[in-house]
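I am writing to request your help with a piece of structural work I have in hand. Here, with my thanks, is the record as I have it:
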Amino acid sequence: MLYKYQKYLLGIALVLLSIAISIRGSDGKISLVLHNYPVLIFLMVLVSLFLGAAYFQINSRRISSLLSQIREQSKNKNEEIEVLLDELSERQKEVYNLIVSGKTNKEIMTELFIEQSTLKSHINQIYKKLNIKSRSELKSKAKTW
């Protein structure tokens, strides 16, 4: 609940601190404006420190929460990707890896000793199983996986 007011905590802390340590000069002397009220100065500084600490504590908790959410989403995404890639046959995985590594169809056919029609069949099956429409989409998704 405090995170709603987090942006105000630091501002209030700075205002209180600046009031507590504000100075004035007169007759060649520089002194605290509230020099006659040392307890008030102490309390203002103390409250300022408390508000600053609360601000950073809230920030830390929010960052931890966001990090946990990111890790969970990443874990779920990786599991989904693993399921999709597991659907590929061994030969399709080989073709997939060669495409992702930047090989052309001709280079893939030469490396795997297969005909163009066989390669195209593997590629079409990869696209279908991974719900992808083009080689460029496959490469861009593979980078994020």
Observations:
- The domain at 87-145 is CATH 1.10.10.10 (Arc Repressor Mutant, subunit A).
- The two ends are 36 Å apart (CA to CA).
- Strands lie at 23-26, 29-32.
